[in-house]
Structure formats: structure tokens, C-alpha cells
Amino acid sequence: MKKRTAYRMAMILCASFFLSGCGLFPFQQDVPFLSERADNKGADSESTGSGTQETFYGNGHDVQGQVSEDSEESESQTAEQEQESPMEKASLLAAQYDYDGAIELLQSQPDYDSSEEMQDAVSEYENAKATCVEYPLDQITHIFFHTLIKDTSKAFDGDSDSGGYNQVMTTIDEFNRIIEGMYEKGYVMVSPHDMATVNEDGTMSQGKIMLPAGKIPFVLSQDDVSYYHYMDGDGFADRLVLDENGDVKAEYVEDDGSVSWGDYDLVPIIDSFVKEHPDFSYHGRKGILAMTGYNGVLGYRTDIAYKTQENLQDDQKRFLENHPDFDYEKEVENATKVAEAMKAEGWEFASHTWGHKNASESSLKELKADNKKWEKYVAPILGKTDMIFFAFGADIGSWEGYTSDNKKYDYYKSRGYRYFCNVDSSQYWVQITDDYFRQGRRDIDGYRMYYNPEVLSDLFDVSEIWDSSRPTPVPEM
Ligand SMILES: [Zn+2]
Question: Which of 2, 161, 306, 448 has its CA 20 to 30 A from that of 194?
């Protein structure tokens, strides 16, 4: 299938579906154009970078060893954090609107009754809590991104993938401006798990989000954080790693092989931003990563095919040929450490199906086989999840709701999925029943910014965000 055909298919799907703005990039592993990258790697010798990120580490050779050594340091780092005073901890909890947590922490201190400082803080938090208002859940927007472009000169170099990147990707500079602007407008990251909760009897209830007036909760997600093989050499990070402080960073490899770790993708950018602005996060929440498994996760080649060497795609074969010392078990171990560090920092994971399946078009049998692979080869690394964010935004039911005869829904529910997200360009679309949670997600990318800037005006002014290194016009879908 040619790229153009894939886009057209996605467009037809989009038009025939109730949703108006699909996440259309044909990341599906059965699209061959995406697997022809590795040979062309490094053709462009110049790297501009965005110039603002810190470089943490400069040698690619023993990166794997570095990841595992770091985990010990990250434990000592955690120990340090635990030594923060109760007042400091409470202050962070309160900054993230968890006033109850802050109050409880201080009141449980043995010296609370004799500490005027703690008692004053508690009354301050009680006052702040009293000013909070409940935010209407059906007005909470959800925005998503793909892997961010670090080097636009490589992503937009005119090769066969450039147009697709221009349509569905966002640059680091754009993302930084978006996040800064949204923060200034009062946006605060929340999770679908704050919007709805699963009760002990298996039913669902609406959650309650309490924020100071003027604050606006939103959900942030990122799709396909696999650093797929086809992206090699196109100006993207190639995996997430733990640095010497136990912080999650993105690894970027220059043409000359030098490696740096820094804020080169969404996760470390948000982590750094929340360190500076804790009030951008509600109760410590960050975003949700919607993950496939066929090229592994987070840049680690953890799918079973890399071990068995059966059913390998061409780019996977090439990867193994170029990495004769590839150690599957180590790869899984390192990916797991990164995922655990991320979860400790407030990140969550959703299934995006193992094979980037179109769940509208796939049969129940195909979806079952696909989900089994997710459970077997992805869940042990990222953890079990009750969220599924459909690839291509292709939902398993109409906007009216999942009906009792919906076999796909029954299956996913039986496997523990309760939170379902499609793609929808309206400002918000939320459905919470006593059985499931559904939410529409809005793509924030070159296509949307170029063709429909008006639908993003609640979030930002595109003219202030737009990266001028994007070729225009952005190709049509
Ligand atoms: Zn996707």
C-alpha cells in the first residue's frame, strides 16, 4: 500500500465515521513505506537542533550500562526526596491542589500540636481549599501529540516521510510555546482517572475535580512513543532513558554517533516544566502515553519478534544486523526501569493496540489476537492498563454509546479496559456512564494548525506557536 493510499483510506474512514478529526498517520506496521528508513540514515550531515536543551551525556557506547547503574542512583535520589521536610512536602501537595493530602500530612506529624508553623499552614490550606470549585467534567478537553520533532531540518528534508511528519507531528519549539501559553491561561493536567472512577462492584462513577476558580483542567496524551525504526535519522529522539539523577530524558544521536540526553521529547519537557511549575499538575498527574508494541516501547526493542527473530519486518531485521550484541533481556529490563520511573513521576500508559490496529475495521478475532500480544509483551513492561486510546481514532462504537450487543466492547471490558478514547476535533466530548468512560482527543499537529487554527483558539493562537521551519502548504490528507 502506498502512502497516498494509506492517507486516503484514513480519510475515508474519517469521513464515514462520526468523528471529525482522526489521528490519521498510517503508523500501522503493515504500511511498508514506513519501514525503509535505516539505509538512508545519516544522509544529512548538518544538525541544527533547537539549541536550547541541556546535554547530559556524551558517549553512546555504554548507554545500556548507564541505564542500569542509574537505577541505584535513582533509589538514593528517592531517599533524598523522602528527607524533604513535611512542610516542604505539604507545600508541594497544596501547590498541586491536593489540600486534603497536605493537611493530613501535617496533622499526622508528632509535633503538630506544638508547631505554630504547621498549624498556620493547615489553616492556609483549608482556606485555599474552600475557594475551589468543582469543574464540569463534560467540559474537559483532551489534547494529544506524537513524538516531537527535535531537528526540523531532518524531519522536513523533503524525503518521502516529510509530508507525513509535517501533517501529524509537532516541533519541540511549538510544544514549548503551547505548554507555556496554556499554563499562563490556567490549564492544569488531569487524568481520565480523576474524571471517572471504577467502584468496587465494577460500576463506574463520575469523579470530582476541585480547582481554584479560573483554572482549567485538561488531559494530555502522546501516541506511539515507540521511536519506530522508520523515524531513524529523521530528527527525532530515539528512546527515553534515566539520567544520573534518575530523571527521564530523551536520547538523541547525532550523525557522528555522539549521544546526548536532554529534554528532546514530550515526557522530559513536561517533567522539567512541572518541576518549575508544580501547579500545572493536578495531584501530581502528568500525561498518558498510548502505546503499541510491534517495534517495542519507549525506544527499546522489546517485542518478542526481536528475540525469536520470527516474523520480522525488514527494518527489524536491519536493526538486529546492525546490533549484533543486542541483548533482549537487558532491553526489557531497561525499558521496565524507565516505565517505572515514569509512573512514579505521574505518567500513565494506555493501550494503542499492539499493532496500531484500526479497531473499527478489524474483526473481533483480530482485535483479540492483537490485545493478547499487548498483554503478553507490553503489559509486563508498562503495567496493566484500563485505558485504550484507539489508533487512527477508530472507535468500536458510535457517539451514541456502546450498546449491550457490542462484542468488541464486551471483549475489551472483559480484559479490564474501562476508559476509551477516540479522536474528535471538537473542544470537548466526554461520555461517562456507569459502565465506561469515553473521551474525544484533539490532535495538535501541523495539519490542524495549518488548516483549522480557529478550532484551537481556546488553547492558543496558532500564529504565536507556528514553527516557521515547516514547509507550506502542509500537504492535504
Ligand atoms: Zn497512533
Answer: 448
